[in-house]
Amino acid sequence: MPTGEDTQKVVKAAPEDLAKATRTIEIGGPPAKRIYDQMSLVALVLDEELRIVRFNAAAERALGKRFDQVLGRPCFDALPDLSEIADCRACERAIAMGIPTEVKDVEIYDHARGKRFTFDFQIDPIVGDNGKLAGVSMIGLDVTERFKLRKRLARHNEDLKTLHAVSNALRKTMDLEKAFVIIASALTSEAGGGYDKALILVCDQDREHLLGRVAVDSLGLDTAEGIWRSLTTHDGPLDKMLESAFPVLHRRWGALTEKVKRVKVPLDSPDSLMIHALRTGEPVTHETCSEQGLEHLHLHLHPTLAEHFPMTCFAAAPLKTDQDAIGVVIVDSSSRPRRFSPERLNMLKMFASQAALAINNGLIFQNVLARAQKDSLTGLYNHGHFQETLRAEIERARRYGQPLSVVMLDIDHFKKFNDSYGHQTGDNVLRQTAQVLTAGVRVTDLAARYGGEEFALLLPHTSLEHAIDLAERTCAGVARKVVVAGPKGERLGVTASFGVATFPVHAQSAAELVSLADEALYMAKKNGRNQVRSASEVLALTPQQREAVKQKHSAPAAPPAQTAPAPLPAAAAGGKDSALPPTVVELPPRYQQRLEAAIAERHQQKSSRDRDTVRIVKSTPEQPPRRTQKRREDEGKPRRRSGRTRKP
């Protein structure tokens, strides 16, 4: 064995010889071929014709070929798993240009273990002893775990980008229905998870039930991606946008939403998976019971939900705000069964948190808007919203050449009714009248409380004849159905007078249309109340007659009589001449006498108090003005006389 000194002498003596050799020295240790065969990196050596001349043991294990099966054969014919390297012609480029080349993320399938592995290959040119290129070496590094991690990070980054985009979209709208569709369609897009269906259920105001609000599916991942992104830039109504841009999907989603709106899950249900998610605040899947040992709870989907949406692979995440959970979002992946990994559930949970914030803001905005647009007593739209909608509907009717009718109605003798039976009873009359109006109109119509005891109906696409017919039915409905209990328990009924006007038959503007409907209402009041009059009858009058009708109706009402209030009209009292069943039930004689005596005594006491007040005021003597301290002091002092003398 040569010593260290001998080695140093050899190195010093002939360094140029060693540079031409194999860059090794014989000092012991394993030979280079053994090292090459036993290293863990995949290593191949190809000649100029790209035939395999070296093939180590790691390459045998990774590529599933023995060395005697591939040596001397063209590399890419013997090893088809390396076709990605052949496609990019990396070996030819390394030989032609003499520069190293990298090929990353080459997938190799291990047939023995049935798994896929990912390798990064470094391809270097090999120079022979004559200084010419003799071939290339291929060194492969197994980067499977790194590749998986990189894919997870890329996926997570895409999820965060999608979440950021959806959050921005939700911040741009306060329309609750549009927010529902943005959330659900984003979940069915490829960027949001690529789920088959997405359903959203929200708690009702009383927090007694979980109600279905929206359900969407995906005809294609690209389509779903385009829908929710287009919603972020479209400011118009949701239905019109979907109907014009995606008519097929609009019909499908409408049918699915109708189905999910039938779902009503009690919040105290002990065996519902969705309620379990609400209670725990954590996502659940179809495997939750088996994975968490909850078989004894027998958790399952609600029967109505399972009937309309059969799902075998799904997950549900609670919609949580700072205070409480307000609903659940459900994603279905039955057509592409998958295992919901912790990363995927965490992403769904983050998505649900952003959705909950947007839905909660939408609910608050919807509540505030309802308070601003609706009357708190009756629940009908108020005067301002009626006028705004009327102007818009007039323009739409003018554009499309459609009729538009307005019905004005006023409860008869309502002031006397309030004075006789109290404002609480009058409020009940207003509420019941509003219920009759709401039940009698279509979804496209609008019922409003115009002011006081006056109401208005806005009827788009309705001719004068149909509007009069509706007014007649409503007039009969008020007389028949509006029955309240008086202070003594008696049943009391009311009637109403109606006026009808139609665009463009009677008027060309919103103000003129309402004015003519009001005049028709005045005419109904003048002609006996509890009836319907149209603007055609008003226009048939002379200007003097129209002015007389207005003045008669606007004159101050006479004070109530000292005795019992005047009886209600025959139609309301159910007299012999009335075709309607009675709505005011007469009391037994003794109770009727007591009621009339009490009312008369009340008016008499009021009149007596008024007379006593006048008598006291007249009998009070007029007192001289009080003298102040300063005035008394001034009176005790002598008055100064001026130097002037008064002229005679």
Please, what is the CATH homologous superfamily of the largest domain?
A: GAF domain
Main sheet overview? 6 strands, antiparallel
Number of strands: 18
**What is the fold-level CATH name, i.e. the topology of the largest domain?**
Beta-Lactamase
What's the CATH architecture name of the largest domain? Answer: 2-Layer Sandwich
* CATH C-level label of the largest domain: Alpha Beta
Sequence of strands across the biggest β-sheet: 8-7-6-11-10-9
- Tally of structural domains: 3
Number of DSSP helical runs: 27
- Which structural class matches the secondary elements? alpha+beta
Strand fraction band? Answer: 15-25%
Q: What Rg is obtained from the alpha carbons, in whole angstroms?
A: 45 Å
C-alpha termini separation: 164 Å
Shape, principal axes of CA atoms: elongated
